[in-house]
Amino acid sequence: MTQVLVLVEHDADGLIDSSRRAVTFARGLAVANANSKVAVCVIGEVPTGGAELASAIGRQAAEYGVASLHVVPFTGYAPLAWARALGQLADSLSADAVVAAGTDRGSEVMAHLGAITGEEMVANCFAVSRSGTHEWHLTRQRWGGSLIEEAWLEAGRALLTVATDAIPPASVVEPVAAPLELELEAYEPQLADGDTSVVATESPEQAGGVSLASARVVVSGGRGVGGVEGFSVIEQLAAYFGGAVGVSRAVTSLGWRPHSEQVGQTGTRVTPDLYMACGISGAIQHLAGCQSAKTMIAINTDGDAPIMARADYAVIGDVNEVLPALLEVLRARG
Amino acid sequence: MRILVCVKRIPMVGGRIVLTPDGGQIDTSMLGFTVSPHEECAVEEAVRIVEAVRAKGGSGEVTVLTLGPPEAADQLRDAVALGASKCVLLETDREWGPIATAEAIAQEARERGPFDLLLFGNEAADSGDFQVGIRVAHLLDLPVVTGIKGLALEPSGSAGSLAGSLPRASARREYRGVEESFELGLPAVVTVKEGINLPRYPSLPGRMRAKKAVIDSLALGWQGEALSTESLRVPTVERRRAELLGRGAEAVPALVALLESLGLLS
């Protein structure tokens, strides 16, 4: 019996979306790897014994075809301690693959685990198969998903992070033999003193308007907006929709707008219903952050700009002409 | 205050990646080169820290290191133009994976150190491995924090490492709407994210210094790695030509109709 161990993250409602995708990925690996089962590891303060959160996680784990659910009781986030615990649990389960969503935390913990054991850690995978006891075939993203790499890994155990935007979360549709709610099994790791010397102190950020990451409408401006003043109309349009302002990297590099508004590979990745790219040419750096938008409208003077090949709808024109006219009509409607 | 900053030469790929005819690598014949955005900020952060130390009468210097082809000297010179003072080029004849890269960097850091602070970008824009800084920290037995968007060094009585005890670092980042802060003693490894600062443009004297900069080069032999690339491909996105709604302000009625059909207008 082999196992694939997944480090999952949770919030107050249960498993986060990225972790559900990582479990979906792991289940694919387990199916391809005959007789393999998926075990998940939760690290944190999860009260056991029928508490609501434990119950939600147990139910979701069962829905996603997980065979066993392990909880490491731990207060706070200490990357090295989390990696140590995950590694010890993987050893105790004889897991032949350890997987985490490619979130900042997932990536950080998996990199620590690789550094502790000296094993390879392969980031941003979205397909994997095993072709021998020591050979894995991996498909992974490079350049934020703009380039795909097929790679071979020689390793007894694979440490992988998952490019979650390439894996839709899928629960197990068929009725499963597993119980409807998995029991949480506590696991106590052996931590060294130094493992907890770097630990996060958490404080909620100031809520400043609509969050860019979760906005349903994002109105983004690029170099084509022309300057700081041009963003006034972008702000007004975003406010009209109850959405958020986004910008391209060129705009933050020019100092026109703060980096917190940057959409892209090195900024925020957005997933709105509507993304309006105004005066943005569509560099890979930018597209990596907005390609999950349901609908994209591009407004650009250059009909051959790369953004035009990725948008659903286009207006060829100067944003400083189109947007004020649009705003006027929208306001006239009341 | 001695700081080591590690950067990686990458092509400026623009709007769409084009591969060489054999599909083995990115066709860079028409491209310029740069370093990852996170790393530009790492260089800027290092220079600012050393400037602050010097302003208080202390001493400090920034060493910038890269592992890559001989041409990566250009990226070291770019860092000198921003204020770095020493350059180390670990020459390789192919792209190295994260384990081999981290071992080479750690080896150099030991030989040229001690460094009080080692700065990296959070992850390289091309490979996105997210681990070289963490592996270097483990090899050097140093504490490490990643993804940092705010870094402050709190003085502990003296301005520089030569004069007495090292400052402590206070680092912060965001995760899922929560601010996380970390306290750690130097020496330490910190990987930073774009947004921690706004990198300056090189000054004219900076550019002159960059031209004259001495590049300390060392050729490294490849030892073989467990992870190997089989092939690369550009993902097939639907090259949907966007539906043209119109030109200029004449497109507004079509835009409004579209927004209405998307259910976005009340």
Structure description:
The complex is a heterodimer of chains A (334) and B (266). Chain A has 334 residues and is α/β, with parallel strands linked by helices. Chain A has two domains: 2-196, Rossmann fold (3-Layer(aba) Sandwich), CATH 3.40.50; 217-332, TPP-binding domain (Rossmann fold, 3-Layer(aba) Sandwich). Chain A has helices at residues 17-32, 52-63, 79-93, 104-117, 231-240, 249-253, 284-290, 306-310, 319-332, and strands at 2-8, 10-11, 14-15, 36-44, 68-73, 97-101, 121-132, 135-142, 147-154, 158-162, 184-186, 201-204, 217-221, 244-247, 274-278, 295-300, 313-316. In chain A, strands 9-8-7-10-6-1-4-5-11 form a nine-stranded mixed sheet. A five-stranded parallel sheet of chain A has the order 14-13-15-16-17. A two-stranded antiparallel sheet of chain A has the order 2-3. Chain B is α/β, with parallel strands linked by helices. Chain B has one domain: HUPs (Rossmann fold), CATH 3.40.50.620. In chain B, the strands form three sheets. Chain B has a seven-stranded parallel sheet with strand order 7-11-6-1-4-5-12, with helices on both faces. In chain B, strands 8-9-10 form a three-stranded antiparallel sheet, with no helix packed on it. Chain B has a two-stranded antiparallel sheet with strand order 2-3. In chain B, helix 3 crosses helix 4. The longest helix of chain B is centred in the N-terminal third of the chain and has 19 residues, at 37-55. The relative contact order of chain B is 0.18. Chains A and B meet through helix 4, strand 7, strand 8, strand 9 and strand 12 of A and helix 3, helix 4, strand 7, strand 9 and strand 10 of B.
